[in-house]
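Exercise 7.
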Amino acid sequence: MEDKQYDKELKGFLWHETGSTVLRKGTIQINGKELYAAIIKSSNNKAEEKYELMISAGLLHVNDVKKSEKSPDIGGPITFDGQKYKLGGWRKTSEKGTEYTSVSLQIKEEDGNANYEGVKKTEEEAPF
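Solution. The predicted structure, written as tokens, is:
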């Protein structure tokens, strides 16, 4: 069986998570900037628990009124390592019947426009 190679730059896949719990949610100030954060408790199949601190990269919005079939189902501006991006997410179902969200990022233009129609839709199949 041949492994598919994916161009993963500014793209990704998100899936439903059933083994995690948000334990705490709030804010943390770092370098004078207030960030939203959460402590997540997760366990794998061997019931080993792990705790992670997750920092919010941005607020996403559900797209209830799509302009076209290619419009994202969810999106919004995010910031990671000081770089601003536009994120678009599309609901998908893999060939195996697993629901997931295909996501794509685009570097945000300096004019501040949030034209999510311009986010390139990924047509790749999820690797699961």
